[in-house]
Amino acid sequence: MKLASRMAAVVTGGASGLGHASVRALAGAGLKVAIFDINTDDGPAIAASVGGTFHHVDITDEQSVVDGFAAARAAHGQERVTVHCAMASRRGKTVGFDKETGGYKRLSTQDFAFGTEGILVASYRVASHSALGMANAEPLNEDGERGSIILTASVAAQDGQIGQVIYGSAKAGVNGMVLPMARDLMDLGIRVNSIMPGIFATPLMLGMKDRNPAMWNQLNASVPFPKRLGDPDEFGSLVLELARNTYFNGQCLRLDGAIRMPPR
């Protein structure tokens, strides 16, 4: 898919981290980017800096997502690239020791359902609403392509650690959705892929550099090569390639410097 100037794109979670890197990459390629985020402190300024728009969207709320797409399309036209980075989750062991009672406690079903809603259900919500809009648009090329949807999974989908039973299983669910969704949408010319990032130097992780330099150095050393955390711009670079390369479809790609996460 040729990323033409002023083609429309949507990035969820675009006000920080990997989402922000995706915004920069897409805007740098000439696309008009709509940011969906609940971060009203940084989101509007980031959108303005790339000539895009900001939309306060809660990915766990159906109407909020519907309204967000409507507003983004009114501003830029039908999106042809959607990158979903936003998420909401909780963590905890399936059964863990409770210091307050001196016994064991179970991770609640409500906590598990919250993470499933904030990761897996939200991924379906964003992808399916975007796909519906793309389906009604004209094809972009001789292949009949109408758009590219890129979901964010995690290496935890394959290497879930202790305390990641919610996160790991929900991210695995995102990967599990990619191929059947790509097949659902194949006759419409809409591609679906996911990226599984490893440990990236997002603002959240960079805070550790000063708080706990020993842990920071340990994390960098744990990556086989290059021996550092991922640069968010490297995530943005892969987003561009997945959007551009029409033969990428139904794929779940690790972007992790060959790291394999230990149990803890």
Automatic annotation (TrEMBL):
InterPro entries: NAD(P)-bd_dom_sf (IPR036291), Sc_DH/Rdtase_CS (IPR020904), SDR_fam (IPR002347). One of its GO terms (molecular function) is oxidoreductase activity. PROSITE patterns: ADH_SHORT. It comes from the Bacteria. The keyword Disulfide bond does not apply. Keywords: Oxidoreductase. SUPFAM superfamilies: NAD(P)-binding Rossmann-fold domains (SSF51735). It holds the Pfam family adh_short_C2. Transmembrane segments: none annotated. This is SDR family oxidoreductase. The lineage of its organism: Bacteria, Pseudomonadati, Pseudomonadota, Alphaproteobacteria, Sphingomonadales.
